[in-house]
Specification:
Largest sheet: 5 strands, parallel
Distance between the termini: 53 Å
EC number: 2.7.7.7
GO cellular component, one term: DNA polymerase III complex
Shape: globular
GO molecular function: DNA binding; DNA-directed DNA polymerase activity
Number of domains: 3
Family: Belongs to the DNA polymerase HolA subunit family.
CATH superfamily of the largest domain: P-loop containing nucleotide triphosphate hydrolases
Keywords: DNA replication, DNA-directed DNA polymerase, Nucleotidyltransferase, Transferase
Helix content: 55-70%
CATH architecture of the largest domain: 3-Layer(aba) Sandwich
CATH class of the largest domain: Alpha Beta
Strand order of the largest sheet: 2-3-4-1-5
Length: 342
């Protein structure tokens, strides 16, 4: 079965004992790891207990196809239910998982940890279609979901957030759940034990130069028409494992803000007033650069760029073609278009 929305969190907190196999997959690797850890802790008190937790890899199953069933059927020497975690799961292990789902042994919970899987994935289809299996997609936090993560994490430390600070955090976090939590924990340490309100200045001081720095730099390079800089930063982000869809969404967000600002100027506002009206506000270190982009782009051209970026995102998620290539092609097209207007 496939779980979505609020059902996922409820299941992760208290897994249905009838479910024997859980596939945790998606582009947000931090959220995948977090949910795998929560599922493990819902069954065993100590995830490092070698008697109750077994870690396997796809390579292990290739060498020993019966290992999954053997581990799942094994009994813990210290008593209690066991967890069998299969790392790097992909379609190559479908043939090893299917016999276990059809004839499960023992009472262990089998957790399959995977990356992003297409709708056509055989492993995903297997787990979504089986009554004793569950598939949990993990996509980047955004919108209300990301705001909940921010409020819960800061609220647990006795902190509340101003509207401007929340808007800033929502625009700079969300690509990876573990990175988001790490940045928020840094903010908690920055504020100290006294609690109080997180201001825009607090958020910018802690998060502005770290979590999304590479993506912000890339967005500005594209809007500037800096083709060489765009390629250089793209190469670095891909080497670091940044998801192409996350990259496209961040650049789209930048152009949406640019669209609002340029539209306000065309409606009669001064460039400074239009830029200051944006929420979250433009980071002061790139204010002059952003105004230069406002002079370079028009509302119709920004609309064309957004259409191109959205089309690339859809293609990345639906065509099965190399996502990095489609992402790079779209960004280079936009950067070249801006470069011709320099």
């Amino acid at each position: 079965m496939k779980l979505t929305g609020g059902r996922i969190e409820a299941f992760v907190a208290r897994p249905d004992p009838k479910v024997r196999v859980v596939l945790v997959y998606g582009p947000d690797t931090g959220l995948v790891r977090e949910r795998v850890d929560k599922l493990t802790r819902a069954v065993v008190d100590d995830p490092s207990d070698p008697f109750r937790v077994a870690d396997l890899t796809a390579a292990t199953l290739k060498e020993d196809p019966s290992r999954l069933a053997d581990e799942a059927a094994a009994m813990a020497l210290t008593g209690g239910r066991r967890v069998v975690r299969l790392r790097d799961a992909a379609d190559a292990v479908t043939a090893r998982v299917k016999p276990f789902i059809e004839d499960p042994k023992g009472d262990s919970l089998v957790i399959l940890q995977a990356g992003d899987l297409a709708k056509s994935s055989s492993l995903r289809k297997l787990c979504e279609g089986a009554d004793i299996a569950a598939a949990l997609p993990c996509y980047a936090d955004e919108g209300a979901g990301l705001e909940t993560v921010v409020r819960d994490t800061l609220g647990a430390a006795g902190l509340r957030t101003s509207a401007d600070a929340m808007a800033f955090l929502l625009s700079h976090l969300g690509g990876d759940r573990q990175l988001t939590r790490a940045e928020l924990e840094k903010l908690v340490l920055y504020k100290g034990a006294a609690g109080g309100e997180v201001t825009l200045e607090d958020a910018a001081a802690c998060v502005g130069d770290s979590a999304s720095l590479g993506l912000d730099d890339l967005s500005n390079a594209v809007a500037d028409g800096d083709v060489a800089g765009t390629q250089r930063m793209l190469d670095r982000l891909f080497r670091e494992g940044t998801n192409p869809v996350q990259i496209l969404r961040m650049v789209q967000r930048h152009f949406q803000r640019l669209h609002l600002a340029v539209g306000a100027v065309e409606a009669g506002k001064s460039p400074e007033a239009a830029m200051k009206s944006l929420r979250p506000p433009v980071f002061f270190k790139v204010a002059n650069r952003f105004q230069g982009q406002m002079r370079r782009w028009t509302v119709p051209l920004i609309g064309q760029a957004l259409d191109l970026l959205l089309e690339a995102e859809i293609d990345c998620k639906s065509t099965g073609l190399p996502a990095e290539e489609m992402c790079a092609r779209a960004l280079m097209q936009v950067a070249r278009a801006a470069g011709r207007r320099r």
